Amino acid sequence: MQKQLIFILIFFSAKLVYSQCDSTSTYFSQLPNSLTILVGDTCLSNADIAVLDSIISKNNLDYESPLAIGTQTWFDGRLRFFVAGNYGNSSGMNDTIYTLPENFGNLTGLTTLYLEWHRISELPESFSNLSNLMSLYINNNILTSMGDNIGNLTNLYFLDLGYNELSEVPASICNLENLTYLWLFNNNLENLPDCFCDLDLDWLNDDNSGYPFFAIGANQLCDNIASCIDSTEHLTLSLDQFYYSFPVYSPQDCDTTTATLEDPIFPYQFQVSSPYPNPFNPTVHLEMYVPHDRKMDIRVFDILGNETNVISNYSIYEFGSHKIHWSSENHSSGVYYIRFSDGIHSKVKKLMVIK
């Protein structure tokens, strides 16, 4: 009799909690171990749940519940911290996100977001609605743009955009008055907005843990460099790609002798095309043109400057075009450099392996 009474009390308690959820939320009786409730009950926002469902469906992922994707922390019914980096372990997720759904901006309670090591190429327009976002880690993707309205995220404190394919920084970034950390290394940036130095950043120093407040190495900033970063060490500073555990000297890619095969600048010099595809897995291709027979040295280096492969040890290449291939089959994901040299001139191309 006593057991029956306990069961009845539990049943009606659950029904009571469920009935207390308003129309904007749903009661969940079971939660995965990867989810934490900081404050509040298990009445969780329908809008936030819909975003998680959209991530799963849009990327053809296999999850029994939207609460099981990544590591989630909820606060008073809203998703507050979302760790969804593709880390290959239990701290994030073990799947690849290619596209963020347009309703992603409905996660308006979000303050911390990890989306590292995916294949995200662009942010949805609604991303700028995440007005409470304070920390964004979206390194090691293939982002080509951060969106014109990134400046709407006025609470941003930490912005990590390292190891992407960004070609420009929108002027609206200068609206981020609370920004304290900005990492833009290993992208394709050729210029910065005129207002860039208006950002209230520490351009020169590191924090107490040795991390730079600002770093922008391994881009293509060669002319008209902003005065706040010109001649500073952080213009050539990056962090190691995999663990961000140590600084890496990463100069700007300012090879003025590089020319396309179609429009050579110096007819007597060899030419090298851009690598394609890039990023790639497992094989990348380049075309090299030599105007007359010559010995060519072609080598591949990792981001630390360690030689990983020798494609040609000053072998003779005859006049004409040659296809150069390199396979990353026995190498891990990351940034690599392929160097071409005829003993007089050298050209370096950046490669990105994503597995």
Question: Overview of this structure, please?
Answer:
The protein is mainly beta and 355 residues long. Helices cover 9% and strands 27% of the residues. The protein is globular. The N and C termini lie far apart (60 Å).
Essential attributes:
four-stranded antiparallel β-sheet, Leucine-rich repeat, LRR (right-handed beta-alpha superhelix), 2 helices, eight-stranded mixed β-sheet, globular, 27% strand, mainly beta, Immunoglobulin-like, 2 domains, 355 residues
Overall helicity: under 10%
CATH topological fold name of the largest domain: Leucine-rich repeat, LRR (right-handed beta-alpha superhelix)
Shape: globular
Unreliable segments of 5+ consecutive residues? 5-19, 256-260
**Lateral strand order in the biggest sheet:** 2-4-5-6-7-8-9-10
The domain tally reads 2
Span from first to last CA? 60 Å
Mean pLDDT: 89
Going by CATH, the homologous superfamily of the largest domain would be Ribonuclease Inhibitor
Helix segment tally: 2
CATH architecture of the largest domain: Alpha-Beta Horseshoe
Rg, Å, rounded: 25 Å
Q: Approximately what portion of the residues adopt beta-strand conformation? A: 25-35%
